[in-house]
Amino acid sequence: MTSFAVVGSGWRAEMFWRLGAALPGLECLGAVVRTPRDLPVPTFSSLDEIRPDFLVTAVSWSASPSVIVEAVERGLPVLAETPPAPTAEGLAELWRRTGDTGLVQVAEQYLLVPAHAARLAAVRAGVIGEPTQVQVSSTHMYHAISMMRGFLGVGRGQVTVRATRTTAPLVDPLTRDGWTDDPEPKPATTTIATVDFGDGRSGLYDFTVNQWHNQLRFRRLVVRGTHGELRDDEVVRLLEPRTIVRSPLVRRQTGYDLDLDGFDTDTITLGDRVLFRNPFPGLRFSDEEIAIATQLRQMADWVRGDGPPPYPLADGAHDHLVALAVEESADTDRTVTIDAPAWR
Fold first, then answer.
1. Rounded-to-integer distance, Cα 251 and Cα 234, Å
2. Which InterPro entries does the record match to this protein (predicted)?
3. Nearest to 318 by CA among 339, 293, 288
4. CATH number at residue 37
5. How many distinct structural domains can be found in the chain?
6. Do 98 and 205 have their domain in common?
């Protein structure tokens, strides 16, 4: 049994302890919180009161670095919510204080979401040749950069960013709190950026405020390669000379119509190739829950010495540093270049 504890009590912390309770071989010992409160797990006032196999930090951006450092000073492996620090200076300081320990992983889940995991498997299998560009219009900042770097297979080298912002009216029918019941358009800001990773590999960043929840904007993902292109759930590719084919990525979802197996994700396939198979069959997890549960399982495997590090601090810090460059470029209307960060 591998144990963990959560620092925090918000909606993301709740997801970790709830999913941990559903996974065999994992045990959530409780939550570390500043002030006593009624939670469905035991609560502790400090890290001195608990000794799990690893710690999950699910606190605010500003509080995260100090909690990570405190855990590392106690020799605790950490799975830190994104981003690990809010500013470029904070990222550098966090790396200076914890980077050499190798104890810090980052809870970057987007490439573990079933649809993205399937797309990533297709790209890594060479279906579209060598990937050269990734266009992301669905999520913001570090998540989008992580997706770009993951699909392109690029490391933590020099990056050049050019970004702009525009504002236009848009109805916002849904937020995290639910339906707004407001049909009136309000000003909504869109940030668009080109991200040059070098060697002919690039990303296009396109995010409108609240795009995670606003269903009036499609989520789009395009991965362009030397021999074809993946667009959302469809691939076009050169199969052989004079033969261009289009193939769908197909999700098998149980529980529809007269399927009596219960509502669950089964597989995502491309032709006869299985790109993704649900690692938690029968638990009825949503896509986000599958991604978070996969993180927890990977973290548990790593601390036991049974698997690779899930997402090292250097990668999480680099994602956010590039995201901060996007914001800086949009703020200043200038090109911003990142060169040789401390964790390179």
1. 12
2. NAD(P)-bd_dom_sf (IPR036291)
3. 339
4. 3.40.50.720
5. 2
6. no
Same structural domain, 142 and 99 = no
The 3 state secondary structure assigned to the chain is CEEEEEECCCHHHHHHHHHHHHCCCEEEEEEECCCCCCCCCCEECCHHHCCCCEEEECCCCCCHHHHHHHHHHCCCCEEECCCCCCCHHHHHHHHHHHHHHCCEEECCCHHHCHHHHHHHHHHHCCCCCCEEEEEEECCCHHHHHHHHHHHHCCCCCCEEEEEEEEEEEECCCEECCEECCCCCCEEEEEEEEEEEEECCEEEEEEEECCCCCCCCCCCEEEEEECCEEEECCEEEEEEECCEEEEEEEEEEEECCCCCCCCCEEEEEEECCEEEEECCCCCCCCCHHHHHHHHHHHHHHHHHHCCCCCCCEHHHHHHHHHHHHHHHHHHHHCCCEEECCCCCC
Closest CA to 234 of 243, 221, 219, 247: 247
Can you tell me the mean pLDDT for 94-119? 97
- Provide the CATH number for the domain around residue 144: 3.30.360
| 257 occurs within a structural domain | yes
Find, among 38, 52, 37, the residue nearest to 6 by Cα: 52
**Same domain for 115 and 201:** yes
> What pTM value is reported for the model?
0.95
Q: Are residues 85 and 129 in the same domain?
A: no
Structure tokens at 55: 């710690």
pLDDT confidence bin for 120, thresholds 50/70/90: very high
Are 17 and 162 found together in one domain? no
Average pLDDT over residues 322-328: 98
214-233 tens-digit pLDDT? 999 999 999 999 999 999 99
**Domain span including residue 265:** 111-281
User: Which of 82, 107, 132 marks a domain boundary?
Assistant: 107
| Domain termination residue (choose one: 281, 301, 332) | 281
Q: Do 12 and 138 fall into the same domain?
A: no
